[in-house]
């Protein structure tokens, strides 16, 4: 059974920092592209950052230079370090795993963790 479990969300003041974690089980973690998405109320889910199995990264323009995605394949965990947070970063953040399983494409989502940036 595949599970992606996010943690680390919460309430933070503007300018503050949070680190999200996503622990994966049931997949060959090292071979998957891992990503963080977010969805704010009334808006579509959007890609925040992604990291390939080889460590290549990609970021949304809105978070470049503020957020950093990383992975630890020994712990089957992907992280999102979020600095200089803004109210517009408020959203539910979802972990995503994209790869192949049994020769077929496979895509999995976590349950989400709420991030609220407010004074």
Order of helices and strands: EEEEEEEEEEE
| Termini gap | 40 Å
Number of helices: 0
On the 0-100 scale, what is the average pLDDT?
A: 96
- In total, the number of strands is 11
Indicate the percent of residues in helices.
under 10%
Radius of gyration: 14 Å
Give the uncertain stretches in residue-range form. none
Structural class category: mainly beta
Overall morphology: globular
- Strand content is over 45%
Largest sheet: 7 strands, mixed
Question: What can you tell me about this protein's structure?
Answer:
The protein is mainly beta and 119 residues long. 0% of the residues lie in helices and 55% in strands. The protein has no helices and eleven strands. The protein has strands at residues 3-7, 10-12, 18-25, 33-39, 46-51, 57-59, 67-72, 77-82, 91-101, 104-109, 113-117. Strands 2, 4, 5, 6, 9, 10 and 11 form a seven-stranded mixed β-sheet that branches. Strand 5 and strand 6 form a beta hairpin. The protein is globular, with a radius of gyration of 14 Å. The protein starts with a strand and ends with a strand. The model has no long low-confidence stretch (mean pLDDT 96).
Task: Kindly summarize this structure in a few lines.
With 119 residues, this protein is mostly beta strands. The chain contains no helices and eleven strands. It is 0% helix and 55% strand.
Summarize this structure as a short list of keywords or feature phrases.
4-stranded antiparallel β-sheet, 0% helix, 7-stranded mixed β-sheet, mainly beta, 119 residues
């Amino acid at each position: 059974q595949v599970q992606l479990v996010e943690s680390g969300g919460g309430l933070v003041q503007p300018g503050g920092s949070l680190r999200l974690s996503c622990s994966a089980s049931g997949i060959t973690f090292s071979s998957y592209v891992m990503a963080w998405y977010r969805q704010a109320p009334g808006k579509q889910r959007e890609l925040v950052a992604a990291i390939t199995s080889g460590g290549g990264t990609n970021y949304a323009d809105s978070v470049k230079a503020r957020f950093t995605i990383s992975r630890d394949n020994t712990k089957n965990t992907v992280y999102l370090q979020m600095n200089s947070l803004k109210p517009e970063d408020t959203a539910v953040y979802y972990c995503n795993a994209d790869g192949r399983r049994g020769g077929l494409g496979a895509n999995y989502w976590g349950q989400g963790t709420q991030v609220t940036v407010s004074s």
